[in-house]
């Protein structure tokens, strides 16, 4: 079961208030076949715990890894995964879609 946006955002806030490093990933653009719609969220803490979904499979693993860097340096990033990108096959978007995910730090 995928958590609701309310659950995900509440968890992001709770983790940040507890002093954990936290990043929030949000799908900001899709094209073609994409497993999750624009506005979908994934919250990640500095230990790699996460809640929510921005895509699934290897894309999520790549977003979780990148979130660690966002937490460490405090700088947001926009990540793109798609068929025109050679990372498409590596992250599991062989179905012809493209997604853009914005990852930002969350502060209490």
Structure description:
The chain has a five-stranded antiparallel beta sheet, sandwiched between helices. It has 108 residues and is an alpha+beta fold. The protein has three helices and five strands. The chain is globular.
Q: Sheet with the most strands?
A: 5 strands, antiparallel
Low-confidence stretches: none
For the biggest β-sheet, the strand order reads: 3-2-1-5-4
**Radius of gyration using CA atoms only:** 13 Å
Shape: globular
Distance between the termini: 27 Å
Structural class: alpha+beta
Provide a concise account of the structure shown.
With about 110 residues, the chain is α+β, with helices and mostly antiparallel strands. It is about 30% helix and about 30% strand.
């Amino acid at each position: 079961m995928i958590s609701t946006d309310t659950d995900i955002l509440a968890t992001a806030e709770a983790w940040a208030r507890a002093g954990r490093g936290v990043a929030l990933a949000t799908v900001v653009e899709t094209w073609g076949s994409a497993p999750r719609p624009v506005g979908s969220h994934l919250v990640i803490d500095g230990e790699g715990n996460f809640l929510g979904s921005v895509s699934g499979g290897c894309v999520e693993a790549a977003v979780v890894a990148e979130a660690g860097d966002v937490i460490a340096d405090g700088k947001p990033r926009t990540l793109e995964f798609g068929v025109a990108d050679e990372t498409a096959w590596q992250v599991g978007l062989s179905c012809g879609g493209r997604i853009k995910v914005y990852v930002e730090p969350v502060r209490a």
